[in-house]
Design brief:
The chain has 239 residues and is α/β, with parallel strands linked by helices. It has two domains: 1-77 and 155-234, P-loop containing nucleotide triphosphate hydrolases (Rossmann fold, 3-Layer(aba) Sandwich); 88-152, no CATH class. Helix content is 37%, strand content 26%. The chain is built from ten helices and ten strands. The protein has helices at 40-47, 70-75, 93-103, 110-119, 121-125, 136-149, 166-181, 193-199, 217-220, 224-231; strands at 2-11, 14-24, 29-33, 55-60, 63-64, 78-81, 154-158, 185-190, 202-207, 210-216. The strands form two sheets. The chain has a six-stranded mixed sheet, sandwiched between helices. The protein has a four-stranded antiparallel sheet with strand order 2-1-4-5, covered by helices on one side. Strand 4 (55-60) and strand 5 form a beta hairpin. The protein is globular, with a radius of gyration of 17 Å. The structure holds adenosine-5'-triphosphate and magnesium ion. The site of magnesium ion has 4 residues, from helix 1.
Length: 239
């Protein structure tokens, strides 16, 4: 569904992606794991057209989208839930959800709203409240819900567990698994490698702008080098 070839991106001449190649099959949930500054967000921003690619190609559903504008990529159904959620805190929960449809050039359909609210029932109770009044976990659910309002064919998620308590993270990941089980293709960026491996079938490890390793998530979770580099340092209570 998504094929990335030798993708490069730089900020002011400093390369953040140094030739990344990666594939996501339709219906899969794939993890992209890496340390701070590895280039994970840059990769997602390149895919959604926010950061320009310096070289390489991105093909989504058979079409080259490497130099397609962000709004056209969104309209094609490749939707991005950015790092830090970026919801509009002064607007209501409902307004944020409706804007999600607009951002993807879709009509805010009643059925889609119902599906989102069934997935995150807590949002239903807070539809008229200001988004800024939500807890961190609820804001993450809103950010995912907002993307879902655009009826994505594929979802790019940037660190949905960031700053969330383990129990809330469980809820968010359960929702992602439900979405994936329903057929939605997902590329999940996570610093929490343990949790990413548990929820995905395949994982890529990004290290300083290049893919250091990839394989079945279950195999990577058992790999001694991966354990030492990505799983060993996790704080107690994480994962
Ligand atoms: N807007 C920017 N301007 C200049 N440099 C940037 C910018 N955004 C990211 N970088 C640099 O590019 C590199 C990759 O950053 P990126 O944010 O993609 O990493 P990341 O893997 O998402 O990290 P994190 O886990 O902290 O979110 C880093 O060296 C970072 O400092
Ligand atoms: Mg990031």
């Amino acid at each position: 569904m998504l094929a990335i070839r030798d993708l490069r991106a730089a900020y002011d001449g400093i390369e953040a992606l140094r030739g990344v190649s990666l594939e996501v099959q339709a219906g899969a949930m794939v993890a992209l794991v890496g340390a701070n500054g590895a280039g994970k967000s840059t990769l997602l921003n390149c895919l959604s057209g926010i950061v320009p690619a310096a070289a390489g190609s991105v093909v989504f559903e058979g079409e080259d989208i490497t130099r397609v504008s962000a709004h056209k990529i969104a309209r094609r159904g490749l939707l991005h839930v950015p790092e830090g959620r970026q919801i509009l805190v002064d607007l209501s929960v409902e307004e944020n959800l409706r804007l999600g449809a607009l951002a993807a050039r879709q009509r805010a359909r009643r059925e889609t709203m119902d599906t989102v609210l069934a997935l995150f029932p807590i949002l239903k109770d807070k539809l008229r409240q200001q988004a800024g009044a939500l807890s961190g976990g609820q804001q993450q659910m809103l950010a995912i819900g907002r993307a879902l309002m655009g009826e994505p064919r594929m979802l790019l998620l940037d660190e949905p567990s960031l700053g969330l308590a383990p129990l809330v993270t469980d809820q968010v990941f359960a929702a992602l698994r439900t979405l994936n089980a329903g057929g939605l293709t997902i590329l999940l960026v996570e610093q929490n490698a343990r949790r990413a491996f548990l929820s995905t079938s395949w994982a890529y490890l990004l290290d300083q702008g290049t893919i250091a390793k990839d394989g079945p998530s279950a195999a990577l979770a058992q790999d001694a080098e991966v354990i030492a580099r990505y799983l060993g340092h996790l704080a107690a209570g994480e994962g």
